[in-house]
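task queued by scheduler; priority normal; single chain, no ligands, no partner chains; default sampling; output format set to structure tokens
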Amino acid sequence: MEVVIVESPAKAKTINKYLGSNYTVLASFGHVRDLPAKDGSVRPDEDFSMDWEVDKPSQKRLTEIAQAVKNADALILATDPDREGEAISWHVLEVLRQKKVLKDKPVSRVVFNAITKKAVLDAMANPREIDAPLVDAYLARRALDYLVGFNLSPVLWRKLPGARSAGRVQSVALRLVCDRESEIERFNSEEYWQIAAKLATPRDDDFEARLTGFEGERLQRLSINNEARAFAIRDMLNGASFRAVSVEAKPTKRNPSPPFTTSSLQQAASAKLGFGASRTMQIAQRLYEGMDIGGETVGLITYMRTDGVQMAPEAIDAARSAIAETFGARYVPEKPRAYSTKAKNAQEAHEAIRPTSFMRHPKDMERFLDRDQARLYDLIWKRAIASQMASAEIERTTAEIVAENGGQKAQLRATGSVIRFEGFIGAYQDHRDDSKAPAEQESDDDDSARLPEILAQEPLKKLSIDPSQHFTEPPPRFSEASLIKRMEELGIGRPSTYAATLQTLQDRQYIVQDKRKLLPDSKGRLVTAFLHNFFEKYVEYDFTADLEGKLDGISSGELSWKEVLREFWKDFSAQIDGTKELRVTDVLDALNEELAPLVFPDRGDGTDPRACPRCGNGKLSLKLGKFGAFVGCSNYPECGFTRQLGSNLSAEAAEGDGGLNEPKDLGVDPESGEPVTLRSGRFGPYVQRGDGKEAKRSSLPKGWQVADIDFEKARQLLSLPREVGLHPESGKPILAGLGRYGPFLQHDGAYANLETVEDVLTIGLNRAVTVIAEKKEKGGRSRSTPAALATLGEHPDFGGTITVREGRFGPYVNVGKVNATLPKSKDPASVTLEEAIQLLNERAEKSGKAPKKAAPKKASTKKAAAADGEAAEKPKRATTRKSAPKTADKEAAAPRAAAPKTELIKAKKAT
């Protein structure tokens, strides 16, 4: 018998079916060891020796694996085909060697890019040894992330209270978002005019042409910059005669894009499906690990963490056959298409993301998948098959037109295109690129118009002349998709880290999402400004990309991993030491200057933005307090003026001496007669109706700016939750409100998410009924206790039966009144009684709900997990022993928080 090790129980179950009874396939459940969250886990003074720690759940699994290996003939390591997968195999092997169960048993490493019977059996027939350079690259990354997080985050805690963490990739990604926001703040809009003429041919076919030249001047975008000139040209054109000078039709071809990489899949899923990066990867993981298709578990897509764009030869042949069968022979190009990536530092060791079989058409798979899985599979299938299809044949027509009025001349141009043969467009069309400015997108759209037949030298009839005023716009804020695209272009991060990095930034509240755009929170601006001033080198894009290049050099065996670490640590440790004498006043002076537009916004009345609005002679400056940074007067304690950072509240609405002083009056509620005010509190700005303990309050939603709050917006917020109407089937009310987890609809104890705050305020009954129905189709559950998925046994201390259940926020284990969420990486079907007991004990201890029979609390080391090697939040109380972050290129996230009970109770009362 041979023992095979994979990561997940879902993979283990599927692969065991493929291999048969002579093999035992066991799951490691991801990484089995990590660096302990304490000082000295990586020791630069000892040539970067590293300590590893096995957590309790992994100890049990490793014991089971060791016992199986002890009685086996051989060990096969079959973890994922990337750096992290190689590292997991290495860790398992090291532990088994320490347990001395291997002896002289043969050990081999196999990799497969898809979980299909053929791919698995082919891999088993071609074993290899563990890739030492790939393991070295993992060790280098873990050491770097640990050293940066563990050494840099404490500097932030000491010098910038309220900051939570800094990290090698996280901080650079945050800088991208902050730099874009600064660029938007500095942007000065300029006026410009465009002039369009609506013309018609002698056959009365109308079309539109744009002005391109006037009186010998070739017009640029900003050439017509005022109304007077625009109207003068309009008047000239109104009296002009028009003639088509030339008409040229050029046939062009548009080629398909390559199949998806991790980055391009996340971008397309965001643009076309509205999925965040983390959601996309979760769904792709399920499709990769395998779905039950007609009684057989089979992987539907190849491995989803890759920056390669090529497909295996057999996959290309299969795609061409599927194209001929589905679309016709004309859609099959003469030769197979070959692709190569343009991304910096790309590692093309793996295939692009593609279906494991092109014969599994998305329509045929819909009945086996939930809605989101089916949509993502459809996207992957279409992009992959389109990548091997014939080019689209397009005829692009350009008509040059001259207008003459007396001695004055103007030139106009009309463009359009006609698809003569759709080619790959019949399967897949690329999404609109949201990283482009609106003007660029508008320019792209111009060519999509279709022109009527226009003959050279024929006269044209003027129908209308339309000048339109425009203003230049700043570059667009990043979305998750466009930020990932930019990180990939700069060579920052790798496929396995994009989703985790963005999630960490949001979890730390360094960035917020508003209508799918990323905005830096004031905390994020402060951290970025601090690092830019005192650790500039380590948030430079080129430095980070160069370091990624060196790590890739380690992967390929070209560089020594310890030599790379020595070079990095020499300068980095010196920089850390240099901050020991740094005074907080030095930090504040630097931040006051760099963040002036955020901290001291222009009041619009010509007065000094830094002058205290209360005492008049004090100077405003950043201050650091227990809960982070705020703006305060230099005349403290004589003047107690303070203001929340980033808030544009006036002096009347500012906090002082820890209380609220003279809130900003917005109006009087016509129904209750109570005043509606805008206030600034300890946890940010909010609106309030009435006074005292019974006053109704509502915090401003994320993305809402204080300066934009008026009486109507305040009334809308205070009216939540609002009744949308009565459900036509149940007759029960549908409520729209804001909860801890964002905007929602509530009906008959069931909840459905809404995309934006505006939806909460404007959604009508028909749309609300549709959203609730769609949620129900996807498996939405009511607040009634869900049925048990499995019964595990009795809890030894609490008493009562332990069950596994599926809740609104994911699977969890339950005993009595204690619920414990399962980690995202944990398959509910594989939870053991021991694991459930441990999760429930930890949850009961943390929440203080442990029954009287509970066993004495066990002391545990407080660990802070952070993606991409980031340090954890600052402990509430200082300790003599430092704690370090658990860093990771891991996709696993922390268990979700409890449901927003307060909001739900409020919603119920409102009914």
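post-processing summary
- Confidence is low (pLDDT under 50) at residues 647-661, 780-784, 853-911.
- The CA atoms of residues 669 and 675 lie 6 Å apart.
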